Amino acid sequence: MPTRRVSSITRRMMVGMGLPLAVLAVLLGVGGAVTINEVVEGVNDRLLGASARAIAETLALENEEVTLDLPASALGMLENDARDNVYYSVWANGELLTGYPDLPRVSEPPDDDGEMVFQYAQYRDYRIRIAAVARKVPRINEPVIVEVAETLEARHALRNRMLVALAILEAMLIAVSLGLLPLAVRWGLAPLKRVLSAMGTRREADFTPLSFDYVPVELRGLVGAFNGLLGRLDAAMQGIRRFTADASHQMRTPLSILRAHVAALRAAKLPAGAAEQSVADIEAATGRLQRLLTQLLALARAEGAREGGPDLRAPVDLVAIARAASMEHAPQAVKTGIDLHFEAPEGEVTILTQPDLAGELVGNLIDNAIRYNRDAGVVTVSVAKEGVVVVEDDGPGIPPDARATAFERFGRLAPDRGREGSGLGLAIVRALADSLGVAVELADRGALPGLRVTVRFPSAAPEKAPTDMRS
Predict the structure, then answer these.
(1) pLDDT tens digit sequence for 330-352
(2) Residue 59 lies in a domain
(3) Domain count, the chain
(4) Are residues 336 and 289 in the same domain?
(5) Where in the sequence is the domain holding 257, given as residue range(s)?
(6) Cβ atoms within 10 A of the Cβ of 389, count?
(7) CA angle, 348 then 314 then 198, to 5°
(8) Model's pTM, two decimal places?
(9) Residue 294 and residue 365 in one domain
């Protein structure tokens, strides 16, 4: 199946704005060239016509003959840096009075007094421009025709200079447009980037809708559809969590009854053998199932807490939270033969957090360290003044390549598959850490065997809440 080329809004905007600008530049260039040609033609034709009129003004009739006094200024006004050649001729009654006899005559000579006609012609291997003016002289039947012509080097030089200047201006316009176009596109896409940033910086399982305060009209439909999707996802997740919590809660009562009956059977002192082993298996399976339900309830609470809602954080003593969690798991450590140590500085270590969730997070780490430790292992819980809790064990640890998936639900490492556990401990830790906004890191213990889990809590100093686009 052929892959479809990924489209780009930036490229589409660049093309959509660049092509009209290019067409406009071409039209301006063509229009400018036409205008330049007309201006150069008009300015030089006025000089050429003025020269012809200056000669025609000197025409007179003396002794029944047409005379003229050719003024020097009439031809001098046509002098230029290009040193164009200037030619002239004066015709009366079809006869040449003065001038160049072989100078081409205009194809349609003027008839009315003062009428001016311009025409291009070829003369002596030069392209020339001719101005012909008619002059009525008394007692002369036909008007006298005065023609003045010049070569075109000056016109071409002026036209070329103006065209080069136009080309430079066009190039500057295109260069400035190409330089400003990406900036304009980025500026135009800035609202979209703000929306994308608000989407990308959201925490996992955060289904609060985006605010429309800074959303342009063109993106309101997209943001509205995204908010609708968030609402449907939130409803689906709420349903899953309610089902998990309700099912777990409803099953706790029959499990408690089942454990009570198992305890009664043990109290009855069954004879050794298959019956006693069956009761032991039932008791162990019931304990595992009860722990699984307890962890599912904890996971549902943790995932519900990380979806936002009111900020319930408060300044609390991290030493007290970690000490309480350690004391709660001390019986478990004694029962399994694990040596549990607690280390903390003197005085309080004040952090800003939700104490119940923080205690549950530390408790799950201690439970994991005890449950997956070696026989007669050691678990150390330490608190630092920087608001850091470290839980260490000297068990098999977690290989570096498996740490990325260690927080997944029901994830079990190969060495742990024979141990009692549900694979939800670290998943609960991750959900609680996300809800509290704390960092959890897994690392080795240097040269020693085991695993070090570091939890960094925010300090109790007030922080400025980051602005986002959530309502």
Answers:
(1) 999 999 999 999 999 998 999 99
(2) yes
(3) 3
(4) no
(5) 231-305
(6) 28
(7) 125
(8) 0.48
(9) no
